[in-house]
Every structure is written in structure tokens, then in C-alpha cells.
Design a protein that fits this description.
Elements (H helix, E strand, L loop, with lengths): L3 E11 L4 E6 L13 E2 L6 E2 L1 E7 L2 E6 L5 H6 L4 E5 L13 H4 L3 E4 L4 E10 L4 E6 L6 E5 L7 E3 L4 E4 L8
Parallel strand pairs: 8-13
Antiparallel strand pairs: 1-2, 1-7, 2-6, 3-4, 5-6, 8-9, 9-10, 10-11, 12-13
């Protein structure tokens, strides 16, 4: 498991005084600032975060060391990471997306179906994007108790019972 988890991303500049637009990936979106200082993926930069107000699609915020619109624009698309030990422990039936990516997925009979490429959410529910061996396209598996009865992080595997016709 990774030592840091992506908790948000910088969506670009907000205004002309160095504020940024933040998109939060945390269950409580405004809690993003509580996990600061946040770092870039490679750890080369660290930011204190002060959320100034909610805006469409996230928050306007001030990041330490960012003083101009140009500096804020240069950070567009930058992921913000927090150490895992600073984040809340999750109940048994919840998972950090980063822990699911890369896990092998097997059907209930033990045959490998593929690997988790990404965890997506387009509003209704989470979907696991699976890469299927020997295929260039991916498949979206609903991340529900019915379709994914078992997630075993310790052994690095997921047991799935995909809806009929999904993998044909």
C-alpha cells in the first residue's frame, strides 16, 4: 500500500491573486485542508492549505508559496497527497481508491478476469475499470456488494460476480 494518498487536485487559478481552485477527493470535501501540509506526488513541493470559500466544483484556496495567478496556473492538474497515517481509518466495507488499483480480479470460480485500472464515479456509484487480458478495451464493473462480494487487500485480490453479459 502506498504511503501517501491523493486527496485532491489543483484545477487551476481562481482570480488574480494566487488563489487556486481545488477539487477534493475526500469523503468530507472541506476536510482536505485538515490533512495539510499536502505534497505533490513526487514530494518535491509541500503546501499549507487555507480554504477561502466554496466554488463550483470545489473550493477556492490559498496554498503556501503560491502568490500569483501565473504560479497558480502552473500548478493546474497537480495532485495533492497526504500521508496515509494522517487520514481517517475506514470501516471494513470502505477502501481508498489507491488500494484497489492494480488488484487482480477473479470470478467466483477462481478464474482471473483482469486487473483494476481505475476507480471511477460519475455520480451514481463507484465503478471498477478493469483491464482484461488479451483485450485492448476495458470493462466497467459496478463496485457493489452484489457484483464485488469480496475485497481482500492482504492477498491483493478481488472476487467478483459480474452481471450477466458484462464480460462477453
Amino acid at each position: 500500500m502506498s504511503e501517501t494518498i491523493c486527496v485532491g487536485t489543483i484545477a487551476g487559478a481562481f482570480g488574480v491573486h494566487g488563489e487556486v481552485r481545488l477539487k477534493s477527493f475526500t469523503a468530507e470535501p472541506e476536510a482536505l485542508a485538515e490533512y495539510a501540509p499536502l505534497t505533490t506526488e513526487d514530494g518535491s513541493r509541500s503546501f499549507e492549505v487555507q480554504i477561502t470559500r466554496p466554488v463550483k466544483g470545489g473550493f477556492a484556496a490559498r496554498l503556501s508559496g503560491v502568490r500569483s495567478k501565473e504560479e497558480a496556473d502552473a500548478l493546474r492538474g497537480t495532485g495533492l497527497y497526504a500521508p496515509r497515517d494522517r487520514l481517517p481509518a475506514l470501516p471494513d466495507d470502505e477502501f481508498y481508491h489507491t488500494d484497489l488499483i492494480g488488484l487482480a480480479v477473479y470470478d467466483t470460480g477462481g478464474a482471473e478476469l483482469g486487473k483494476v485500472k481505475a476507480v471511477l464515479n460519475h455520480g451514481a456509484a463507484d465503478l471498477l475499470e478493469l483491464t482484461i487480458p488479451g483485450q485492448s478495451k476495458t470493462v466497467l464493473l459496478p463496485f457493489t456488494q452484489a457484483a464485488v462480494p469480496t475485497v481482500d487487500l492482504a492477498s491483493g485480490r478481488i472476487v467478483a460476480d459480474p452481471p450477466e453479459g458484462l464480460l462477453e
